[in-house]
Structure formats: structure tokens, C-alpha cells
Amino acid sequence: MAIEKNLLTSAIIFAIPQDNPKTTIPNNCRFDACIVISSDVLIDESVYQGAIPGGTYLIYKVKHTADAIKKAYSDIFTSLQSNGYGLDHKPIMEKYMGDMISNPYCEICVPIKA
């Protein structure tokens, strides 16, 4: 549907990991793929519509490579603790904007509480 409706050309995409790769083998790791759409886009019952929880997030801008993202995830929790933040009980999300070929970065959005 996203390709048919031309929603990916300037999309904001969120990837929400559902499993911890340290405790789940890679082939079993799951994530939700989400596209931000305007309210005038018609969707059918094959698409789940939801809302991303609000709140305060630390944003880590990282190069969109497996190595850079893996390193960021390994550094996030140490960085949170050393800066006095705690992880809020919401999902960590990866945010991708626009054309991922011309924009080789993503943002890892980490929900925090002071």
C-alpha cells in the first residue's frame, strides 16, 4: 500500500524493535515498521493505525550502517546513566526521514525520565 499510494518518497518512517538482539537470535528479532501519514490518506483494514507515545526522548543521530547502529545501541544505556537519566517504559524507536539514499543518517529516539 505504501508504494501504491506513493507514501515513501518523502516519508517519516519509524522502526520499533520488539526484541533484544542480546537475548533473541537474529532470525527471530522482530520490529514494527511505521509510516507517518496525514489524516487524509485512506487506509483499509489490512493496515494497523496507531499513535506513537509522546514524552521526552534523547535523540542519537547515527550513520545508517549496521556497525554505527550497533555501536549506538551499545552506548545508549551507559550514556543515560552517566547523564542522570532513566529509561522510560516506552519503545526505543529508529526514525528515518526522506530519501534514505541521500540521507544516510537515522535518529535513535530513546524515551527517558529524569
Summary tags:
Multidrug-efflux Transporter 1 Regulator Bmrr, Chain A; 114 residues; 15% helix; alpha+beta; six-stranded antiparallel beta sheet; globular; 1 helix
Largest sheet: 6 strands, antiparallel
CATH class: Alpha Beta
Radius of gyration: 15 Å
CATH superfamily: Regulatory factor, effector binding domain
* Element-level helix/strand string: EEEHEEE
Provide mean pLDDT, rounded: 84
Q: Do you know the CATH topology?
A: Multidrug-efflux Transporter 1 Regulator Bmrr, Chain A
Structural class: alpha+beta
What CATH architecture label applies? Alpha-Beta Barrel
Which descriptor suits the 3D outline? globular
What's the short version?
The chain is 15% helix and 30% strand. It has 114 residues and is of the alpha+beta class.
Describe the structure.
- By secondary structure, this protein is α+β, with helices and mostly antiparallel strands.
- The protein has a single domain (12-39, 55-113), classed as Regulatory factor, effector binding domain (Multidrug-efflux Transporter 1 Regulator Bmrr, Chain A, Alpha-Beta Barrel).
- The protein is built from one helix and six strands.
- Strands 1, 2, 3, 4, 5 and 6 form a six-stranded antiparallel sheet that branches.
- Strand 5 (93-97) and strand 6 (105-113) form a beta hairpin.
- The chain is globular and about 45 Å long.
- The mean pLDDT is 84.
